[in-house]
From TrEMBL:
Annotated SMART domains: CHAD (SM00880)
Domain called CHAD: residue spans: 200-488
Entry-linked PROSITE patterns: CHAD
Protein name in UniProt: CHAD domain-containing protein
Highest taxon of the lineage: Bacteria
Length: 502
């Protein structure tokens, strides 16, 4: 590469390269690219020994030297303490950071002298070559530092350098350069795996198949993170994709070829049941610190035996989950589902494939039906309604929410945002009600389990669990009280207008 610089410099200038500094740079991000979306770049840079973690962005650079080689993926608590971890905390949350790409970076300082030997400029040459996940052509960033009185000559030289066809210039902004590297290696996968996007005129059957294929992609993409237990969000995302699949099969599966929805609905129900025990325990463990902070009569330390019991239960549940995800039943489900849906897309031009009309026509009919179902059930809820009725409303709201997400491309954007916002307010209260009831009941079950272990937990642990159960019941009662006001608003004229505008 430096030969191209000599060509650009011509006979007027001489280049005097300094020593090469070579580093291995591993770029780190969460699976959903939270750091990149916040214009932050986290790297592990190593030229020898254990290297250092470097966080760049927001005009600052924070560095922490490592005493030993780090292991990735790593959750926040597994990173060394200091400014880097403090800055990462609010962004990554419960997600792990994992390698997104690895590059070899060569840095060199070059002095530029004129024919008299006077120093005209210095520039820093940084050449980055990605090696994983796929090799790519080097990207070069040149930063010029003209000497006093030689700015015009420096700018002229910089223009010549950057015009060289051998140089693929990289952005000087770290976040933009990181995105360019991801793009060059194909690590930023095209949404929908290259399938045509859903539009208003897409045949209804193609729209449903495309949406279902997107959910199947998510299941496949999160599978490795679930099996390796990278972080709890992988299982959460897999479950959401399964629930979206089941809801769409229920609400619009009849547009698919005969029996296809019925055959696979049972298999996705099995997959949902398989993932439930581990996810329920994850939710409890993720809430444990917040729950412990609500204790008044007991200490947070009193809950330690309970937390250890939950961790042991989760280990057993996760073993069963991983066995299921490695089974022939699961691989057959996913492979067969992809194959069947691809066949649906391939046959969209055949007779009968347009019998349900366009995506817009299907969305209009199914949204109207789903909205009526939710409104009808919401109107029957009173402060005296049994919990089962409230939970049924929550399920119908969740189905409508997933249908709204699928129908987003064919809806008016403003009406869609307003309807989704109204629905989410109702869902939040219904979720608090559900969590309060389910988790308080679970605490009683866990207390009975602890009573059966040897040695039995101290009385303080059971008392602390009782206090937690009381707090969850109070949460449920508050949600029940809030529900009346939220339902009144949801059933009012403003929300009705938003739903009608869909």
């Amino acid at each position: 590469m430096l030969r191209s610089l000599a060509t650009a410099a011509g006979s007027r200038y001489e280049l005097h390269p300094g020593p090469r500094r070579v580093r291995t740079v591993t770029y780190l991000d969460t699976a959903d690219h939270r750091l990149r979306r916040k214009n932050l770049v986290l790297t592990h840079e190593r030229a020898g020994a254990a290297g250092e973690l470097v966080l760049t962005g927001r005009g600052d650079t924070h560095t922490v030297r490592l005493k030993e080689l780090p292991r990735f993926p790593a959750r926040l608590e597994q990173l060394p303490g200091g400014l880097v971890r403090d800055e990462l905390g609010p962004v990554v949350g419960i997600r792990a950071v994992l390698p997104t790409l690895t590059a070899r970076t060569v840095t060199r300082e070059v002095a530029v002298r004129d024919s008299r030997g006077d120093l005209v400029a210095k520039f820093e040459w940084i050449e980055t070559t990605v090696t994983e996940p796929a090799a790519a052509e080097p990207l070069v960033r040149i930063t010029l530092y003209p000497q006093p009185g030689c700015r015009k000559a420096g700018e002229r030289l910089a223009k010549r350098l950057r015009a060289q066809p051998q140089i693929r210039s990289a952005s000087s902004a770290p976040a933009q350069a990181y995105t360019e590297l991801l793009t060059a290696t194909g690590a930023l996968r095209q949404a929908g795996n290259g399938r045509p996007p859903i539009t208003r005129d897409t045949p209804a059957v193609a729209a449903v198949a495309t949406a279902l294929l997107g959910f199947a992609d998510t299941i496949a993409d999160t599978l490795g993170g679930v099996v390796d237990d990278v972080d709890t969000e992988f299982l959460h995302e897999l479950r959401v994709a399964v629930r979206r699949t089941r809801s769409l099969l229920k609400l619009a599966g009849d547009v698919l070829p005969a029996e296809l929805a019925r055959r696979y609905a049972a298999e996705f129900a099995w997959l949902g049941d398989l993932t439930t025990p581990t996810r329920d325990l994850d939710v409890f463990l993720l809430r444990m610190e917040d729950l412990a902070n609500t204790l008044l009569a007991c200490e947070a330390a009193d809950l330690r035996p309970f937390t250890e019991h939950l961790c042991a239960q989760r280990d057993r549940a996760r073993d069963e989950l991983v066995d299921g995800l490695r089974s022939q039943r699961f691989s057959g489900l996913l492979d067969g589902w992809w194959r069947e849906l691809d066949a649906v897309l391939q046959n969209c031009g055949t007779a009968g494939s347009t019998s349900f009309g366009s995506a817009r026509e299907l969305a209009e009919k199914r949204l109207r039906r789903a909205v009526k179902r939710v409104v009808r059930r919401a109107a029957t809820i009173t402060p005296e309604s049994p919990s089962a009725r409230v939970h049924d409303l929550r399920k119908r709201c969740k189905e409508l929410r997933y249908l709204l997400e699928v129908a987003r491309p064919v809806c008016d954007a403003r009406a869609h945002r307003a309807a989704l916002r109204d629905l989410k307010r109702l869902q939040d209260v219904l979720g608090d009600f559900q969590d309060g009831e389910v988790q308080s009941a679970a605490l009683h079950t866990y207390a009975e389990q602890l009573q059966a272990v040897d040695p039995r937990p101290p009385a303080a642990t059971l008392l602390a669990m009782g206090e937690l159960a009381a707090g969850l019941v109070a949460q449920q009662r508050k949600a029940r009280a809030d529900l009346t006001a939220v339902l009144r608003e949801f059933l009012g004229p403003v929300t009705r207008q938003h739903l009608k505008a869909l």
